[in-house]
Design brief:
heterodimer, A: 346 residues, mainly beta, 6-stranded mixed sheet, 3 helices, 11% helix, B: 414 residues, mainly alpha, 16 helices
Chain lengths: 346, 414
């Protein structure tokens, strides 16, 4: 091939590539969205029938979730009837969680070179009351059952001098004053009655007790994970078990469901532990990798989000239900379509 | 020394470069490889920049999977780099091997586009891109060094690194610009990325000339041992210096804490240092050609030592911030391409691929251990102590390297 032919072919190729890209962009700009089906009806939370439903919360548990059909806007169903979904016209959350009197919605601000989260405090009608800026990518949100305390966990990159890996940072909030109470790294820790400390301490996976003061969480240090019990007023942690990550405490406070690294493959499996006997057992299948914040539907069932297969989140993302008693074995049942970050409000 | 069978055209260019000492006189291969790298880095970095949000909030991969992907991106493909260097020298198919590395990255981008929103394919596709990067580095640097006379190694690597860094700076800006305009426009980012990567491969295939067959030296055996010794000194120096170098993120984080500015401005630092680097890479390369690569490298590490001293000093935070960013940029300008230039001068033509890969891997491994060591120091004591240990470490490393590189420091053209 002569030089001139090669150069001509090169320019033709460049024109095809540039033209193709421009053509694609022009076509794509005309399409409103890909990850959400905004044709779903959105209800105003103040609308009479929605308000009536929200007022029903005392009569039976309700489930709040983020809808992948509407960019993470909050959806509501009655736990007894998950088929009837109401998707509300709220903020678009990446993670959210709710208690009786309000909740927390973590929104991702994508408009900066280093995207990070804002924590919005919502009232019982999902109206934002205030906002705090967080330092990284949102991964977990949890609110105490009465809605007084909240916790958020974000991924922070370059936080740790030891490595360039992502680390987590967990902050506690007082939802009534809408202020951060404290960074969990400021708590003192005791293990077997002695002070325990290390610069690489990392906390995540907060789950509150009913009293709105004590909570359980994960402490990570030196490659190990511990279950710790925190006391907000004393700013203190006590190590209570080993090898427990992302605990979730049952409403009767007798069990925790947590994730544990799978023995034969990468990823996590859900386990349950009886807090009285300290006995623990796997509750989901070995082959399933599950890594979402677990929520208790009642004292014997948990629900959690999971991606199955490929495709847009609208199709692949859903909430599953698992029975925790040992006799039930490893099990999983479909619960809610196009949803993640479930929160049960009773 | 290595007089390979370069085409007359190529010799003419080299002569121009030597005589006029001009950047414009560099062999076209340098420019075209530079453009290839610019487009490829743009293509690659625009995807890397949007990947965390794409993975976590569009595909909803689990944080653990995300950790694996992030780890893949941080880790260099050092082993692949070495293997590719060896294959390059054995087959002498510089252009073909380099092209296959660029094509691997192109296929990775194409895969992201074709696989669509798929969490399953994300990890292998990111891995494929890293493998491609590992494959192309050694043959590319070998072509650069084989396309110019040894008197212009510094300038050639300087020009290449300047263009390469421009791409790495523009990529993330383009990626974010797309996402701001088009909601969830990840597919658009991938389409642009594919187009850029494809044009990059086309530039390489169309315009870069395969260096002509390299003929081994007549008295190869004797020379090889002598050359081998000098080269080992360069490679060991790269490792020793790497071992005393803290990570960029440490420098940035220290500045951010000193100045107390919000973390969302942290990316400005990530932009400022490459901006300094790319402005200085070419002039510093020419200085290296003039006064000797080894001396420039020592000067570069002295700049790094000044970064440490600045961070630990009691100067006003603003002064520390600006000085540290500029010095860090100067450090990269005076060491990255210049090390390749120094190593090229100590390598026979038929060893360029593996030799350059070995030097760069030696430095990577040194830095990796430094990072582990720093982490350990940080975990056991205060950060200030860790910084002080690294200061002493770098002074010791510089003394060791001055001895190792003494023949090159002394003998070089002044």
């Amino acid at each position: 091939m002569s030089g001139r032919v090669r150069v001509t072919l090169f320019w033709i190729f460049v024109v095809v590539c540039v033209g193709g890209a421009i053509g694609y962009i022009r076509w794509r700009v005309g399409i409103p969205s890909r990850s959400a089906d905004l044709s779903v009806p959105l209800y105003a939370p103040t609308q009479p029938d929605v308000a009536a439903m929200l007022d029903d919360i005392g009569k039976g548990p309700h489930l709040f979730f983020q809808s992948s059909r509407a960019y993470g806007r909050i959806g509501v169903v009655k736990a007894a009837n998950p088929g009837e979904q109401w998707i509300l016209d709220t903020l678009e959350c990446e993670r959210s969680h709710f208690g009786k009197s309000g909740g927390l919605c973590l929104v991702l601000n994508r408009e900066t070179m280093q995207p990070r989260a804002h924590a919005y405090f919502l009232d019982a009608r999902f109206q934002p009351l205030g906002r705090l800026d967080l330092a990284g990518l949102p991964i977990r949100a949890r609110v105490s059952p009465d809605g007084k305390l909240g916790a958020s966990t974000v991924f922070v990159s370059g936080e740790n001098y030891a490595s360039e890996d992502f680390t987590t940072r967990t902050t506690l909030f007082d939802l009534s004053t809408r202020q951060a109470i404290v960074d969990l790294e400021k708590f003192t820790v005791e293990r077997d009655g002695r002070p325990f400390s290390n610069v690489d301490f990392n906390f995540w996976g907060v789950t509150f007790r009913q009293d709105s003061n004590r909570f359980l969480a994960t402490l990570g240090t030196g490659g190990k994970r511990f279950l710790v019990e925190g006391d907000v007023s004393r700013r203190h942690f006590r190590v209570i078990a080993d090898d427990v990550e992302c605990p979730s405490l049952s409403p009767d406070e007798r069990h925790v469901v947590f994730k544990r690294q799978r023995a034969r493959a990468a990823g996590w499996q859900l386990w349950a532990m009886n807090l009285d006997t300290r006995e623990s057992w796997a509750i989901t299948e070995d082959q399933q990798d599950i890594d979402d914040q677990v929520e208790w539907l009642d004292d014997t069932h948990v629900i959690y989000g999971m991606v199955l297969g490929s495709g847009l989140p609208e199709q692949s993302l859903s909430v599953w239900k698992t029975r925790i008693d040992q006799a039930a074995g490893k099990n999983r049942e479909f619960f809610l379509r196009s949803a993640w970050s479930p929160a049960v409000v009773r | 020394v290595y007089q390979s069978g370069l085409s007359s055209d190529l010799r003419r260019h080299n002569a121009d470069a030597t005589v006029r000492g001009r950047i414009r006189g560099l062999h076209p291969n340098i420019w075209f490889l530079g453009i290839t790298s610019l487009l490829t880095d743009m293509s690659s970095e625009m995807v890397v920049a949007v990947l965390p949000v794409y993975a976590l909030y569009f595909l909803h991969v689990t944080p653990a999977t995300f950790g694996v992907i992030d780890g893949l991106q941080q880790g260099g493909a050092s082993l692949v780099k070495l293997l590719s260097g060896l294959a390059t020298d054995r087959t002498r198919r510089y252009k073909t091997i380099a092209a296959s590395g660029y094509v691997a990255s192109l296929l990775s981008r194409l895969g992201l586009l074709v696989a669509g929103p798929s969490a399953t394919w994300l990890t292998p596709l990111v891995a494929l891109d890293r493998v491609g990067k590992g494959i192309r580095t050694a043959p590319r640097d070998a072509i650069i060094s084989l396309s110019v006379d040894r008197a212009a190694f510094g300038a050639a690597f300087g020009v290449h690194r300047t263009l390469d860094t421009i791409g790495a700076l523009l990529g993330p800006l383009l990626g974010f610009a797309v996402l701001l305009q088009i909601r969830d426009g990840y597919d658009v980012v991938f389409v642009i990325s594919v187009a850029l990567a494809a044009i990059a491969v086309a530039v390489l295939v169309t315009f870069v000339r395969q260096p002509a067959a390299v003929t081994p030296e007549p008295d190869a055996a004797g020379l090889e041992i002598a050359v081998g010794r000098r080269f080992s000194r360069v490679a060991i120096s790269a490792a020793v210096l790497g071992l005393a170098t803290v990570s960029d993120s440490f420098v940035y984080l220290s500045i951010q804490r000193l100045l107390g500015f919000p973390v969302e401005y942290l990316p400005l630092l990530y932009v400022a240092t490459p901006a300094v680097y790319l402005s200085f890479a070419t002039p510093v390369g020419r200085i290296a050609d003039r006064f000797g690569s080894a001396r420039v490298i020592i000067a570069g590490y002295l700049a790094m030592l000044m970064v440490y001293l600045t961070l630990g000093s009691g100067l006003p935070p603003m002064v520390i911030g600006i000085a540290a960013v500029v010095l860090l940029g100067v450090f990269y300008a005076a060491t990255d391409g210049v090390f390749a230039a120094l190593a090229s001068a100590e390598l026979p033509a038929e060893r360029r691929g593996s030799g350059l890969a070995a030097v760069s891997t030696a430095n990577d491994v040194g830095r990796m251990f430094a990072s582990i060591l720093f982490g350990w120091l940080w975990t056991t004591g205060a950060t200030a102590d860790a910084l002080r240990h690294f200061q002493i470490g770098l002074v010791v490393a510089l003394c060791v390297v001055a001895v190792l590189l003494w023949p090159m420091l002394r003998n070089e053209r002044a």
